[in-house]
């Protein structure tokens, strides 16, 4: 299990995370929901060791290793070095972990990427798929996916949902952020709603029916009241 307990993180005076706790269990998809600026990416960066200067506990319970050892990350905006092809990017990702480079064709038959073109010249959706390919070819116990559906076309979107469900069946634990609530509730087993750096509420799948209405009320209470005066 990946676990975050009482995480606090501030940038200067700005307290971005204020006591966040959540767990990602093997064989489950945990959705992380929140407005722009709520702290989702900061939480992911702390969890993955890309941020320092936070307090709280972060642990990967299985085997006692570090989170990064057993977890693959697809960041919100994957970075690609210039003049690296898609294939070279994936090879680079594997080499930094001292992992053998497998045959990329089986996964790429699904993702259809032009692996011999420069990755920084890919479209936004192709870049997201390339970052996905780089984690899919590795056998991670956990995956953290920051807005993985962002920029994907309908076909890739449907395919990714299927991939996520199958990874879950195989026992992978997934932490997923998405602003597309329908997509998230379709695949997730549980969700945490982050509001102003705090987990406002944790939902099980059985409680997803009220999630949208609760979010509207939590995020837009005043605007909703104003809307009622207009319509
Ligand atoms: N490196 C940084 N330095 C200063 N402030 C930062 C930094 N990174 C993030 N922040 C601030 O922390 C807050 C949370 O940002 P974060 O990117 O975690 O939000 P988010 O929930 O992922 O938002 P979005 O949905 O827009 O991706 C924002 O107010 C942001 O401006």
UniProtKB/TrEMBL annotation:
InterPro entries: AAA+_ATPase (IPR003593), ABC_transporter-like_ATP-bd (IPR003439), ABC_transporter-like_CS (IPR017871), ABC_Transporter_VariousFunc (IPR051782), P-loop_NTPase (IPR027417). Keywords: ATP-binding, Nucleotide-binding, Transport. CDD domains: ABC_DR_subfamily_A. It comes from the Bacteria. PROSITE patterns: ABC_TRANSPORTER_1, ABC_TRANSPORTER_2. The keyword Nucleotide-binding applies. SUPFAM superfamilies: P-loop containing nucleoside triphosphate hydrolases. One of its GO terms (molecular function) is ATP hydrolysis activity. Gene3D superfamilies: P-loop containing nucleotide triphosphate hydrolases. Residues 2-221 form the ABC transporter domain. Pfam families: ABC_tran. PANTHER family: ABC TRANSPORTER ATP-BINDING PROTEIN ALBC-RELATED (PTHR42939). This is ATP-binding cassette domain-containing protein. It comes from Hymenobacter setariae.
